[in-house]
């Protein structure tokens, strides 16, 4: 019997692993495991990736995406759909593109032990911040 108190927003906020679906140039879905950070108040999900990934290329061409997360028991799930924006990669460790990644990290994991090192790695890895503006959320608890 389904749990009538299930809130897919809560599952999205509590999940640190999900699958991001983007659209390939031929229209088929491309799926990527990601570590999302859901900011329900702002209505966005943030994901860090690198500039050379398929998901980055797909989102630059077509910004529509969906993120699916599953509960620990595998019987509950939530999906968020929306349109993305991408920031980065940055070339300046103190620039706005890297600062956006610092803000993402703080929201997702707290304080980093060495921010100078983190900023340097964000530049060398060519990290990109994906922000999914959540337009629709749905899901189910099938317990």
UniProtKB/TrEMBL annotation:
Cellular component, GO annotation:
cytosol
Q: Which Gene3D superfamilies match?
A: Electron Transport, Fmn-binding Protein, Chain A
Region (Disordered) spans which residues?
68-94
Note one Pfam family from the annotation.
PNPOx_N
Q: Which UniProt keywords apply?
A: Oxidoreductase
- What stretch or stretches form a coiled coil here? none
Protein name per its UniProtKB record = F420-dependent protein
């Amino acid at each position: 019997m389904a749990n009538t108190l299930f809130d897919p927003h809560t599952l999205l906020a509590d999940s640190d692993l999900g699958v991001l679906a983007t659209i390939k140039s031929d229209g088929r879905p491309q799926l990527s495991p990601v570590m999302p950070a859901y900011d329900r108040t702002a209505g966005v999900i943030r994901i860090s990736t690198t500039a050379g990934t398929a998901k980055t290329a797909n989102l630059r061409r077509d910004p529509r995406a969906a993120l699916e997360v599953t509960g620990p028991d595998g019987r509950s799930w939530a999906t968020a759909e929306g349109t993305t924006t991408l920031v980065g990669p940055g070339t300046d460790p103190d620039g706005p593109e890297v600062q956006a990644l610092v803000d993402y990290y703080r929201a997702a994991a707290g304080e980093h032990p060495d921010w100078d090192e983190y900023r340097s790695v964000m530049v060398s890895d060519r990290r990109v911040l994906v922000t999914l503006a959540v337009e629709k959320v749905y899901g189910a608890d099938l317990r």
